[in-house]
Amino acid sequence: MNSNLAKVLHPMCGAPLLAHVLAVLGETGVARVLVVVGHQRDRVRAAFPQPGIEWVVQAEQRGTGHAIQMAGPALAGFTGNLLVVCGDTPLLRADTLHALLDHHAASGAAVTVLSTRVPDASGYGRIVREAHGGRVAIVEERDATPAQKRIDEINSGIYAFRYPVLEAVLGRLTPGNAQGEYYLTDTLSLIQDAGHPAEVLCAEDWRSLLGINTPDQLAEAERIHARRQGGLGPEPGRR
Prior knowledge:
Layout lengths: L10 E2 L2 E2 H12 L4 E5 L3 H7 L5 E5 L6 H7 L10 E4 L9 H14 L3 E7 L8 E4 L6 E4 L6 H4 L3 E10 H8 L16 H7 L4 E6 L11 H15 L10
Parallel strand pairs: 3-4, 6-10
Antiparallel strand pairs: 1-2, 5-9, 6-9, 7-8
Helix pairs in contact: 1-4
C-alpha cells in the first residue's frame, strides 16, 4: 500500500476496510467474531472499541494457517462451523456468505472453499480440481506450475470449516513452500487425506471478493462501492 498504516485501517468511502467486513459479518448473523491481529495490533484494536469483538494476537506473521492456530485457545471446545474471512475484502456481501454457509451445510463437507473466476488471476491461489476422484486443492501463485497459472478460478481466502475436523489437522501444517509459511490452504489436502469431503462454491460476482493490496485497487473498490450505493451496479474492473 506504500504506507505505514496497517492495511485494514485504510479508509474506503469513509470507513476502514475492516469496518466493512465486520458490518457484513453482522448482517450474516454469526454468533462470535474473532479478529486475528499482528502488525499495528494496538492501533487496530483502538479503532474498533465496540463490544463483541474477540481479539486474537498473532505476534509473528507466519501465514494464514498459523493465524488460525493462534485462535485455538479461544475456540477450545467449539464444535460448530468456523467461517474464515479476510479483513481486506470490503466489497464482500452477506448474501455471498449465506450462500457459502448454506452450501457447506447441505453438502456435508468438512471444508467448503469460496472461489470465483476472474479476468486476471495473477497473484491469487488457483483452484485445482482432480479429473477423477473429486479431490480439490489450492496452489499458491508462487508454487504453481505454468499450467496451473493458466487456471482462472481462484481462491477468495474465504472458507467454511467444520471446526473439529480443522482443529485435528492444524498441528500437521508445515512451512514447506516458497514463502516458508503455514498455509491454511494446505489443510484441504490434510482434511481429504483423513477421509473427509471438501467442496468448492464458485461465486458469480468476482468483484465482491476483491482483496485490497495496492492504492489502485483501493480506488477501484471505492468506485464499485459508490456505484452500488447509487444503484448503478459495479463498474467494470481492471482485473
